[in-house]
Amino acid sequence: MRRVLPRTHGFQRPFGLWPEGFGEGGALPEDSEGFGEGGALPEDSEGFGEGGALPVGLVMDPIKISKLTFAYGEGELRRPVLRDVALQVHAGEVVLLTGPSGSGKTTLLTLIGALRAMQEGSCRVLGRELMGASEHERVRLRRSIGFIFQNHNLLGFLTARQNVAMALEVEAALPERDRLARAGAMLAAVGLDGHEDKLPAKLSGGQRQRVAIARALVGEPGLVLADEPTAALDKVSGGEVAHLLRDMAKSRGTPILMVTHDPRILDIADRVVAMEDGRIVEAAAA
Amino acid sequence: MSATMDKGGRFGPAALRSPDAIGTPGLLPWAPERTGEAPPAAPAVPRGPGMLSALLLPARLAWRQLRAERARLFSAMAGVMFAAVLVFMQLGFRSALFDSATRLLAAMEAELFLLNPLTTVSFRPEPIPRVRAHQALALPEVAQAVPVYMTQATWRNPEDGSRRMIQMIGFDVEAGAMRFEGLDAIAPALRRVDAVGFDTRSRPEFGDVARLFAERGPFEVQVGNRMVEVVGLVTIGPSFGADGNLVMSEVNFRRMVRERQATNTDLVAIRLQPDADVATAQRRLREIMPPDVMVLTHAELVAHERRYWETATPIGFIFGFGSVMGLIVGMVIVYQILFSDIANHLREYATLKAIGYSNFYLARVVMAAALILAVIGFLPGAALCVWLYDVVADATFLPLAMTFERAAVVFALIFGMCAAAGLLAMRKLRDASPADMF
């Protein structure tokens, strides 16, 4: 018996490092939670192990949250922002997270991104349970996640290529030449061929956001978290960035969880999750 | 799915697409049974960062960040340079003090010395019985025992008549116990009555004696209450204790300093036989000498003089304190630069944390920035001090010059100063919260 992964479109793996199975039809043994034979990591794996980034792309549900509760402050000042949240995101899925300001979207994103320590409930990201994870374990997990911030946050003193290569330099497992080559290829993939050696100040807002996307994707992450990636962009640039992300998600099978208020990009979503007052109130297929 | 392996040793569908595998199912990709070739080397397994990368990559990031803001970089450089110059000058003065203070004693040729235990510094010696020199000659390994007389007297400037205290050194000028430059040439002349040799490196307030001597030849000057004749020139150099020097024979010294008892001297320089062991001779001399003299080697005599300036005067402390102040000022400057640098780039640091950079890595970036500042501030500071040493040496006649040892010490101090500033500034990194990036 085999089952076929949904939403893998059979695109070429860009750097040859993506785990076998993505983009190749995705045939899997039924009893496997991962991709490719022999290399499957059980979905319930708890271990962070030692060393650099975690292996990615081996988990069926890269995000699996249940009974997640989070509050800021202590004692009388304690203010709950997430209440009993449950959410599951599948491989290759593009999920938009919407909701009014203060509904807990960003806090949820920071918890999934291992940027904050958990307080209550379960949050399993790329097969790793974040409840009780140490700072060191969270730092390691972050290396397997691609982050796209609203304000791109590029390092102003580095060129576009160097900014993108920074995502690979964190472990320095690749030689410098390979890092720069992959960064250049990734920039080309997001349409920035010829702009590799420009400083961020010399790029337009849309181009900077593309560099940020390239930085998020160059390490071939198992998950991409994006916060209003199109908010600062005009309609054309916003649409291009949104579809670029969707194409990347589909070609690589990388799930994308995106906080956005931008109605122009709803069409890229597989699912829209609405939040209100710290709870998920609606999860609709797009 | 068959467990076919690809070239990378992985199992999976990619192996099925391998050209080798497609044509000959069941064969290993390199098909040694077909080609007879040895299997290719296993592909390199990606390794974690080596020690060199772990140091160089943060340093490169730090340098790129520093270089991007030239004004900030130059102000930091100036701050470190200022600290380096301050420390160089303080340590230079301190060293010049000690070098000049011991220059006279360092110029003595003897292996052992007899000194009154109460003598704290050479320009204010306590007398010892002259007979101790004769007693020393009782040992077969002693070749010569030369009494040395030292005191200060008033020199009258032959050009303008002004008066100034000058150091007088009397000894047997032909015994070879002193190696002042020019002494050998004038030694016969110094045997004449009331003949003296003038130190050409004495301060200019004593008059341009060298010029006068060149113009007139031997000429008379007043020293104390006596007219003496300058018969030649030697080179010694002033010290913090003496602005100028006069050398003369032992007999002329006693003529000029009549209040001195003939039975006393200030120092006895002992020259040993060529094959004598200094330590053994020192031990044997101590055995035969009464406790009113101490027996010191040349190095011990210089160290004794140096100890006076280090401990019995505030001068050594003042220059040491000046060095510390320079380092503190430099540290504050570097700390301010690094701190504001981190504060201005908190978002970038937080972003790096978000994408998986550890606090330790970022701490290395800050530390590397501090140490880069140490290097690029030290180098121009050292170059500037080479020039400043010349200027100050010309003005003060003190032996100020750049030495490798001092440059190494100052670099180590500046390096430590910047490292301390970096450690302090690192605390600001805690404010870079990756959670605030969303």
Report on the structure:
- The complex is a heterodimer of chains A (286) and B (438).
- With 286 residues, chain A is of the alpha/beta class.
- Chain A has a single domain (63-285), classed as P-loop containing nucleotide triphosphate hydrolases (Rossmann fold).
- Chain A contains six helices and twelve strands.
- Chain A has helices at residues 105-112, 135-142, 160-169, 176-189, 205-217, 235-252, and strands at residues 2-4, 27-29, 63-72, 79-89, 94-98, 120-125, 128-129, 145-148, 223-227, 256-259, 271-276, 279-285.
- In chain A, helix 3 (160-169) crosses helix 4 (176-189).
- Chain B is an alpha+beta fold and 438 residues long.
- Chain B has two domains: 52-99 and 315-437, no CATH class; 117-292, no CATH class.
- Chain B contains 16 helices and eleven strands.
- A nine-stranded mixed sheet of chain B has the order 6-7-5-8-4-3-10-1-11. Chain B has a two-stranded antiparallel ribbon with strand order 2-9.
- In chain B, strand 3 and strand 4 form a beta hairpin.
- Chain B is elongated, with a radius of gyration of 36 Å.
- At the A-B interface, helix 1, helix 2 and helix 3 of A face helix 4 and helix 14 of B.
Distance between the termini of chain A: 30 Å
Helix content of chain A: 10-25%
Number of strands of chain B: 11
- Principal-axis shape of chain B equals elongated
CATH class of chain A: Alpha Beta
Largest interface: A-B, 46 and 36 residues
Protein structure class of chain A = alpha/beta
Assign the CATH topology of chain A. Rossmann fold
- The helix/strand order of chain B is HHHHHHEEHEEHEHEEEHEEHEHHHHH
Q: How does the overall form of chain A come out from the CA principal axes?
A: globular
- Please outline the major beta sheet of chain B: 9 strands, mixed
Give the amount of beta strand of chain B, in percent: 15-25%
Strand order of the largest sheet of chain A: 8-9-10-5-11-12
- What oligomeric arrangement do these chains adopt? heterodimer
List unreliable stretches of 5+ residues of chain A: 1-58
The share of residues in helices of chain B is 40-55%
Spatial arrangement of strands, main beta sheet of chain B: 6-7-5-8-4-3-10-1-11
What is the CATH homologous superfamily assignment of chain A? P-loop containing nucleotide triphosphate hydrolases
How large a portion of the residues of chain A is in β-strands, by DSSP E?
Answer: 15-25%
Number of helices of chain B: 16
> How many domain regions of chain A?
1
